[in-house]
Amino acid sequence: MDRERLEEAYEQALNELAKAKLEVEMLTNTVNGGTARLAVDDGMRIIAASEGYYRMTGYSEAESLEAPFFRKGVNLVLPQDLPVIASAIENLSRDEPIRITYRIRKKDGTIAWNSAHCARINHSGPERTIDVFFFDITDTKQTEIELKNLLNNIPAGVLRASIGDGICIQFANHEFYRQIGYTQKEFAGEDIKNQYLCVVHPDDRAYLMERTEAFTGSEYKCVGLEYRIITKDGQIRWMWATGSRLSDPNEPASILQGIIKDITDERQQRLDVALNEERYRIISEQTKETVFDWDLIHDRIQFSPVYQKMFGFMPPADLPVRSLTDYDIIYEEDKPQVNRMIDSILNGESYAEAEYRAKCADGSYLWCRNRVTTIFGDNHKPIRAIGLLSDINDYKQTATVLQDQAMRDSLTGLLNRMAFQRSVERILQEYPAGRYAFLLFDIDHFKSINDTMGHVQGDEVLKNIATILPDEFRSSDLFARMGGDEFAVFVVNISSAEATLKIADRLCAKICGLTELTGLARQITISLGMSTYPLDAATFEELYKKADQALYEVKHNGGNGCLRYF
Asked: What is the value of pTM for the model shown?
């Protein structure tokens, strides 16, 4: 009995081992890579490898015996990456786990990036071996390269830095190093050691560090700072930096990502304008736009006399800026964007603008555009803002008219196809639980009307049909001329398809009555097809297609009728 139990236990152990082996093989075959056991002292000869390993190389196990493989994976490694392999073997000999990245040439000639992981050298058995996990990381590596190329083409410094004992640069693009005049190697050397404060002007280091540390400990998601740096060749340049947090602000060293822009020339221009008070006075009096001066320190704003010409009254002198929105000066719906503009300037933005409606003396409202530029003091804080208030009322009215014209058919005044489609798609997206009907119809034998009576008479028929549609449906329904003699109606909140089809029948009869009104010799009839949402279709294109199929069926049966898609 003892022997039988031992044999039974042994059989069970073999089954468990086979099951575990199968599970490992299934696991390795689910990733884009595989495993292999290699002979260290025989040029990394493959002793055993998973199917995933061979699949990763493009070769089969049988093909690995021949050139150029010769059952040694290193033969596929690009020559310039072979030193990486050699260095890895040396580290393994010192019992140091390795993780390396290198390139191979696959069977089809393409280059693939591989990542190899190995913990140690195995000394058991007749030869030294290593067990290696291989992963194909080509897609990841390509994305990394593309991202790096993209960052290096951005015309501003892009960086990632840890904030702790200084500002240590962890990553920066080419433009960052061009700004400071140092190469990446020089910046990482013993003199600088990637510490950004080393190139910041000594008078601005405490300010920059104080603001950065305050930001990392606050709830704000973005920071904007203005300061000076000293480049490698000794130039003093003004920089504007914006950044956002990457890590928890409670961590000892928070991580920031940011963009740095050289604003030396821009700042000098702002200072020139700010210091030339006489030029400002002349411009403010002669321009057609209202010029205003906002004292940020004392929160007082003054407008040039043009304000009275634009709005019919003059605001009180030294008006607090919040009075623009606290009182009845700005149109109620436009107050949020005006407040956002004010907050941007107070938070240190160099420029902000907003379009809104401002009240006139007669109670009407005037569309205007407000553009504001900030002036900063020596302490890097915004002290004044100069703005221009422009009258854009005619532009807004013209834009509204043009937008409406662009949505309308010029002959009938109905929505054109593009505007109709967008409106239907918006309704379906915003109110997906509704029930809708899509009616599509055209005029039977309309070409003969144009040919025998002329296009002027044909246009009259189209315009008369356009006037009938609003009478037969509700104001909430949509009407469109889709092109030529084709019309469409989108009926919202239908009670049933049968009830809507009755309305369509009534429309056909009403259009037949146009014969006497237009003086035509032959009766005007239409062919109409209908589809419904959500029963027949779920999108505009599907509704249109199925209504068109129903319309075609009516045409096929002689026209002058209505039919629902089935």
From this structure: 0.36
